[in-house]
Amino acid sequence: MKRYFITGIGTEVGKTVSSAIVTEALEADYWKPIQAGDMDFGDADKVKSWVSNSKSTFHLNAFALKTPMSPHAAAEIDKVVIKASEIESPKTANNLVVEGAGGVLVPISNTETILDLILPTDKVILISRHYLGSINHTLLSIEVLKSRGFNDIGIIFNGDEHLTTESIIKEMSGCHILGRIEQLTTINKETIKEQAIKLKANLLGF
Length: 206
Fold this sequence. Notes:
Blueprint: E1 3-8, H1 15-26, E2 29-31, E3 34-36, H2 43-50, E4 58-59, E5 63-65, H3 71-77, E6 96-103, E7 123-129, H4 134-147, E8 153-158, H5 163-173, E9 176-181, H6 189-205
Parallel strand pairs: 1-6, 1-7, 2-4, 2-6, 3-5, 7-8, 8-9
Helix pairs in contact: 1-2, 1-6, 4-5
């Protein structure tokens, strides 16, 4: 069993859509350890509604926090304490896609961040979306991951193609480029499957 930890260069870069695509491509299980806000239809519900294969299982959040804020702040409102050491990965024989919250240095408590949820054996998939400053945010995220000993890093570009951005990130990071997700005007089982087919070979080789 392999774990694929999906994180992003920031918020709203497409982690959940990307997680659905990776889950579909690998027919993997899906798990979001910490959900903050959107309790009626959270990210796990979204991914489940978009994935069409029959093999994937969708595991419950370790923490389901009521307020759409940074996990540490949402946890404080809910009067709970999040400790990475107390979050147990679901038991499964299948590959597992794990979706983080925000970027790699988003706090989950006063002393820990999303980085502390990533296991040494995880394959890390970083979602990068083009905007002014995204090169810096992408390379900073990679440097932080490498500084903590994570070297098995793949990058998925999300959105319209920007060759100069993508090429300099590839050259300077030295990371695996797993592909690019097209800008989706409609998100459903069909469009997720289309993107999954395009990325499947690279994901299987990662």
